[in-house]
Amino acid sequence: MTSFTASADGTRIAFDRIGDGSPIILVHPAYGHRAFDPPMAQLAELLASRFSVLTYDRRGRGESGDTTPYGVSREVDDIAALLEEAGGAACLYGMSSGAVLALEAAISGLAMNALALYEPPFITDDSRLPYPENYVAHLRQLVASGRRGDAVAYAMENVGLPKAAVDQMRSQPFWPAFERVAHTLVYDGMVMDATQRGHPLATQRFKQINIPALVIVGSKAPAWARNSAEALVAALPQGKLQVIEADFHAVDANTLAPILIDFFVGAERTTSLHRERRRG
Q1: How much is the mean pLDDT over the chain?
Q2: Contact between residue 72 and residue 106 where contact means Cβ atoms under 8 Å apart
Q3: Cβ-based burial of 202 (10 A; exposed 0-12, middle 13-18, buried ≥19)
Q4: How far apart are CA 259 and CA 268, in angstroms?
Q5: Distance between alpha carbon 31 and the CA centroid of its chain, in Å?
Q6: 66, pLDDT greater than 80
Q7: In this structure, are residues 105 and 79 in contact, taking their beta carbons and an 8 Å threshold?
Q8: Domains delineated in the chain
Q9: Cα 170–171–176 angle (5° rounding)?
Q10: Which pLDDT does position 160 carry in this prediction?
Q11: How many CB atoms neighbour CB 65 within 10 A?
Q12: How far apart (Å, rounded) are the C-alpha atoms in residues 58 and 266?
């Protein structure tokens, strides 16, 4: 059954909670929400064997509300509200832009026990072209003029999909679901911000996140994605890189779940040990 919480600006955020145990919050990538991300739903079911798992609709998607003007800090506030629902602190898992949002939440000082991040799509070198400087502005213009399909196509082509493949996708039954959340591509663009410019120091602002952090990347991911994962791990004080057999942004939940369970259980033990030492 869907539950709701209120963010700091009053926006209603829809979420589900399954399983028992210590809490984990799952943060969707671009386009994803509870009704439109089967891999994340499957992952939640698998993690619920060991944890209390909260999945939610990011603002502007699914059953969650939206409040203008958008700001990344408001999405961080949404996670803060979910942390309260979880009991005050939790582990976070995020994929792609959801991983970057999880990093933003961590850098803001929210109470987190650990972070697991799947392929946050930073561009930290010249191994691929950076996003256009006017990427977010152009997306916003397309959405405002009612060209939601063109906005989705523009975003997908900037990710690296060939135009012919995107044109073929536009005729598929699932395309309208992409169009319904096209306005949130602006949000994701703002979350990503300067990390899409190819600057080698783009990840350095995250070096203050001193909690266990696992960065996961698929073995078949393009070089720019592998390079940026390595750069992020180097910046995180407790960062660890894990390469798994998978295509880019296409990991199987059955492969990912045991990795996350092992990591989060280990992070819990480390956190408990540190607390006991402080008490002593």
Answers
A1: 94
A2: no
A3: buried
A4: 14
A5: 11
A6: yes
A7: yes
A8: 3-124+199-279 (3.40.50.1820), 135-189 (no CATH)
A9: 65
A10: 86
A11: 16
A12: 28
How far is the first Cα of the chain from the last one, in angstroms, to the nearest whole number? 43
Helix ranges restricted to H, 68-206 = 72-86, 97-107, 135-144, 148-159, 163-169, 175-180, 184-192
pTM of the model: 0.95
pLDDT confidence of residue 1: 83
Instruction: Measure the CA–CA gap between 228 and 211, rounded to whole angstroms.
Output: 19
Residue with tokens 């509870």: 34
Task: Look at residue 81 and tell me whether its pLDDT is greater than 90.
Answer: yes
Q: What is the DSSP string of 13-71?
A: EEEEEESSSSEEEEE--TT--TTS-HHHHHHHHHHTTTSEEEEE--TTSTT----SSP-
Q: What pLDDT digit, counting tens, does each position of 3-49 carry?
A: 999 999 999 999 999 999 999 999 999 999 999 999 999 999 999 99
Lowest mean pLDDT among 118-122, 166-170, 248-252: 248-252
**Radius of gyration of the chain measured on its C-alpha atoms:** 18
134 has pLDDT over 60: yes
CA dist., res. 169 & res. 163, Å (int): 10
**3-class secondary structure, 180:** helix
Site of tokens 């992409």? 178
Which band of pLDDT confidence, cut at 50, 70 and 90, is reported for residue 150? very high
- The per-residue DSSP string of 105-132 comes to HHHTT--EEEEEEE------SSSSPPPP
